[in-house]
């Protein structure tokens, strides 16, 4: 988590959730607000991504971590950390 926070240029992310399966931290970077989600397991990451599809948005997905932010910030972060950018549209009910 520290390596990703440093790459974001936001060394002090505010932890919002700290549970066994999910941690979530957020902070403001030069490129905008970012939320970092490191996962204990790949299964937990996949479950979160499946649920997030409902809400739409853009995420940079790595090996057991996800960063949610604006596309331009994610593209810059992807060049430093790798991963893949996923975009989803919110589902209407």
UniProtKB/TrEMBL annotation:
It comes from the Bacteria. This is Uncharacterized protein. It comes from Nonomuraea rubra.
């Amino acid at each position: 988590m520290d390596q990703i926070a440093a790459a974001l240029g936001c060394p002090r992310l505010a932890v919002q959730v700290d549970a066994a399966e999910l941690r979530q931290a957020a902070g403001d970077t030069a490129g905008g607000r970012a939320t970092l989600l490191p996962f204990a397991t790949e299964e937990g990451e996949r479950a979160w991504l499946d649920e997030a599809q409902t809400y739409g948005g853009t995420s940079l997905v790595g090996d057991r971590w996800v960063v949610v932010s604006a596309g331009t910030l994610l593209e810059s972060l992807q060049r430093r950390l790798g991963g893949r950018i996923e975009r989803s549209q919110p589902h209407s009910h």
